[in-house]
Amino acid sequence: MVTTLNVENAPPAFHLLVKPTGAVCNLDCKYCFFLSKEMLYPGSRFRMADELLETYIKQLLESHQVPEVNLAWQGGEPTLMGLDFFKRMIDLANNYKKPGQTLAHTMQTNGTKLDDEWGAFFKENNFLIGLSVDGTKEMHDTYRVNKGGAGSFDQVMRGLEVLKRHNVDFNILCTVHNANADHGAEVYRFFRDELGADFMQFIPIVERANETLLPLANVGWSERDGGERPLYVQQGNLVTERSVKSKQYGRFLIDIFEEWVRRDVGSVYVQIFDVTLGSWVGQHNLCIFSPTCGTALALEHNGDLYSCDHYVEPDYLLGNIHETHMLELVASEKQRQFGQDKLDSLPQYCLDCDVRFACHGGCPRNRFITTPDGEPGLNYLCAGYKDFFHHVSMPMNIMANLLDQQRAPSEIMAVYAQQDAAQAALLARTGRNDPCPCGSGKKFKQCHGKKQ
Ligand code: SF4
Ligand code: SF4
I need a surface site. Which of 289, 290, 336, 396 has the fewest CB within 10 A? Predict the structure, then answer.
């Protein structure tokens, strides 16, 4: 058992992603620049030692002053540690938890190593599993390949079957890139109808590069002949060919939203929609859309603690938890400044933006383009974010009002059903090439006669 620790300015809770195998993974996804982070630890075996596992758990549970503590595993591929490692983890966590503390176990995995033993273990310990799938087999296999270059879709589906067989809660994590970004509704329906998913996240792939690195980066971050690969750092204002385009990402989200808001509100959870509704009622539930950040850190396999999973780079190393308690590192001035910089570095264009309350400039890692008047520091995804937030403004207002009246946001589906019925009736009365009766001056088919 542990006691609560008092460190000045420490947050009551924080999120820590643990990478027990560092960046090591059995797959070799072409867009995965995390793979290149192996280069930060030359000669390492990339396995978290049992002694560090115990130190991490003890410090994590000591540090939290909230009843529920999340133990979050990520990679690389965490299942490469083997099941026994995680069984030891559960024993240690149960041993060290404080009275009244409950533990929430989560793991992000590519799913290719899962079997019934893993499934039973996850279920027994109430794990929430994040499974990486990029859409249909063709979309997924474009970039999510193994070391031999073959697509991993079939193996991942076998992993998903394990999770379903054991009734393990899962969440689909889909990265959005040039192979799936034009197919938002198709991707969404595939997850909902074919995979039976009711929790989804859509993460944009933005692989930044400078002119020198771009040709290498376009080939991918996997090992080259001779075992070498380029090291990814947050530099340059160009992006790889695989990266999603800004407006394309906005369109992808809008296409999914149009389907979701008509039939799935309350039954399918799409992270960005939920977070956006949160912003509409004054809550910030995700670091990238919060005014400041700094409470989502990453722990490497050797105890090095970094400011964020996206900043596992030498400049953002806070220290090692073998030498300094993690809470002191989390509460350090360096980390406070890291989180505050998200707000302080906003360009004027963002400060004046009508959807800043929902966007807050997005994640700093993607702020590498210039504003229309030439100020640096605008988010590469700005145009897409703007399109999305503007598009969902009316329905978000409706859902926020419903919440305010203590009614379910899902009532919005009836509003859309009515609106769609009225539109269909109008379409039946109006030729698609006639002027739209709304007075826009456009043809009806280009205005209110658009097919959804
Ligand atoms: S840098 Fe980005 S991902 Fe990291 S904590 Fe800040 S907003 Fe979140
Ligand atoms: S939508 Fe664009 S301008 Fe507005 S806050 Fe976000 S990044 Fe800044």
Answer: 336
